[in-house]
Write a structure and sequence with these properties.
By secondary structure, the chain is α+β, with helices and mostly antiparallel strands. It is built from seven helices and six strands; from the N terminus they run E-E-E-H-E-E-H-H-E-H-H-H-H. The strands form two sheets. Strands 1-2-4-3 form a four-stranded mixed sheet, covered by helices on one side.
Length: 261
């Protein structure tokens, strides 16, 4: 049994990568996943979301993932774009300059966006993604451990609670014969009081109301049987190593409360 409340973190450091992952969750009827990443790994958010969705089925989940790749990237020169910028600069200089020999400086051209870009090889990207995934798995492992510890604590408390309810039912069942005898005596007294005077229709109705009132409370055996059944079902759920049991447990507890009331 696992709790929906949990926390886990994980970090990775070497000469090239710095990665920090944090996952925390609260109770929620459905899976509500919020992911925060820095721009360098925003392209991996879909895969991260899918991995977290496979591992966590319910809860309000917050995941913070920040990673930096410190490897020096290769610089890529877009020669075609550079040529286009060069032609435009030359035309501009010929229009605004009195000297046709004036030419743009190369530093002016290469500052334009897209002329020089940063690129990494596929192997470098794979190493980075691998490090992120390993750190995410480490964080998920710690998160699941906390959920399991918390779930076991709640499960033990629920088991003890079911045992206490069962003990109280035994006490109630032990008092039932005396309780029924008291009700019977009281019912007889009420009927005798009412019938000590001439019976008309109004009195007859009152007798029926009083009888129905006491009869309704006379036999609680059906409620006791259902309560025992609910306790057994709850105990059976707690003994099993299953996931997503919260909804069934909530339903059973609601039914127990209805029988008790």
């Amino acid at each position: 049994m696992k709790s929906m409340t949990g926390y886990g973190n994980g970090s990775f450091r070497d000469e090239f990568f710095e990665i920090d992952v944090e996952i925390k969750s609260l109770n929620h009827r459905f899976l509500d996943l919020s992911i925060n990443t820095n721009s360098e790994i925003s392209h991996l958010e879909y895969d991260i979301r899918k991995r977290l969705g496979d591992a966590i089925k319910r809860g309000k989940v917050y995941a913070n993932i920040y990673a930096t790749n410190k490897k020096t990237p290769k610089l890529i020169l877009d020669e075609s774009l550079l040529q286009q910028f060069n032609e435009i600069y030359k035309r501009a200089y010929s229009i605004v300059s009195s000297s046709t020999n004036t030419k743009p400086e190369p530093i002016e051209i290469i500052r334009n966006e897209g002329v020089i870009t940063r690129g990494r090889g596929k192997d470098e990207d794979k190493d980075f993604e691998y490090a992120i995934n390993r750190t995410l798995e480490l964080c998920l492992g710690r998160y699941e451990e906390m959920r399991l510890v918390e779930g076991n604590r709640i499960g033990n408390w629920l088991s003890e609670s079911m045992n206490r309810v069962k003990e109280r039912l035994g006490t109630i069942e032990g008092h039932l014969p005396h309780y029924r005898e008291e009700l019977k005596t009281r019912l007889q007294q009420v009927v005798q009081e009412i019938t000590s005077t001439p019976v008309d229709k109004d009195i007859e109705k009152r007798i029926m109301v009083e009888v129905a009132f006491y009869v309704d409370r006379y036999d609680i055996n059906e409620e006791l049987v259902r309560l025992h059944d609910h306790i057994e079902k709850m105990s059976d759920i707690l003994r099993r190593d299953e996931v997503e049991i919260g909804k069934r447990m909530n339903f059973i507890i609601q039914e127990m409360q209805r029988e008790i009331q």
